[in-house]
Structures are given as structure tokens and as C-alpha cells.
Amino acid sequence: NAGVTQTPKFQVLKTGQSMTLQCAQDMNHEYMSWYRQDPGMGLRLIHYSVGAGITDQGEVPNGYNVSRSTTEDFPLRLLSAAPSQTSVYFCASKKRGITEAFFGQGTRLTVV
Amino acid sequence: TQLLEQSPQFLSIQEGENLTVYCNSSSVFSSLQWYRQEPGEGPVLLVTVVTGGEVKKLKRLTFQFGDARKDSSLHITAAQPGDTGLYLCAGVEYGNKLVFGAGTILRVKS
Questions:
Q1: Which of B98, B99, B104, B105 best probes binding to A when mutated, by most A CB atoms within 10 angstroms?
Q2: How far is A46 from A35, CA to CA, in rounded Å?
Q3: What is the tens place of the pLDDT at every residue in B47-96?
Q4: Cys bridge to B74: A24, A62, B21, B56, which one at CB 3.0-4.6 A?
């Protein structure tokens, strides 16, 4: 059972470049979400999805896009990278309701 | 979005000592979860508390949910170096969304 798989693990971008962080889960979870983790700030919610075709914004959505065309995949797009987006990004999935969230191993992104 | 405050931010203790981490909010959550995260990994769930006043034990870890469901605590008895990590509390909103506190970095020295 792979759980939640994130790629890549590390990425360096130049300011203004675009890229997509991939996230896939094989647990048939309805709910998927993207967080960024910065020192001293815990995990902040970027975007989330309660099912295929449905997405919504979290606390810090600016500069990021998402789509959910299948239950399994929830990619996060950076449209025009900025140094303020340097962070560690985590994708998570869970079943609906008060259930355990499963996290990927994270993507460490540096924007120079 | 409701806010969760965790304290302390950083804790460095000797093996065998006891410690308590606090998680407080001005709002009520339907439930609260505690996660532990090790360097280079994603957070992993330790426990979910749902009922006000609930106490759950996981070996040397004791979790409590406040009566008003606005606060929670994590108590570790006789800490060991293997307990070292980042401890995160997360409030569950609307049954799905997780709101995380800033975390407590725990270092247990042998």
C-alpha cells in the first residue's frame, strides 16, 4: 500500500517559473488537501478538495492553483514562483468525517 | 478559520523527565487531533479526542480534551530520546478541514 505519494521531493525554481507538485493516493479517500510548512508557523492550508471535480481555497491560496479530475490525484500548480513560496509542501488525504489524515513525505521547494 | 495556539514552542529536557504541551483556542472544535512529525517526514496521527473532558492514553502519552472543547493537552511521562520530534495539534472543522497549531519542538537528551 503506497499511501500518499508526492513528487518531486526537492525542487529549485527561479523566480517567475511555473511548476506542478504531484500528489497521488491509493486509499480511495474523498478528501485531499495541500499544506505549506514554514518554521514556527505549523501547517497552513493552501487548497483542499472534498471529491473529484470539487476544490476550494484554504488560508493561503494566492499564487497556487489546484484541480481534482480523479479521486486519486490532486496536483498543486505554482503559476509564477516567488521567493515567498520557498517552503515545504505536504499533501494529505483522509476519508470524510473525523478521521486520520495521511500525509505524503513532503516536497522541499526553494525559489531563488 | 479558527486559530490554535500551542505552547511551549520549544522544549529541551533530560531523559526521564515529564512534560506537558498545551493547545488552546478561543473557539470550539468538534474534535481535536495530535500528530507527531519527524524530520523529513509528514505528520503521523497519535490520537483523536472528540468528547469534552475526554482523556486518552497511549503508553506514556496522555491526551486530554478540555470540558469546553476549546483546549487540549499532551502529557508525556518519563520522556525518552525516541519521543524527540515536532508535536502538532489540529482542530477539526466541519468534519474535514484540519487547522493546525504552530507546533512544539521536543528534544529529549540522553
A1: B98
A2: 5
A3: 999 999 999 999 999 999 999 999 999 999 999 999 999 999 999 887 68
A4: B21
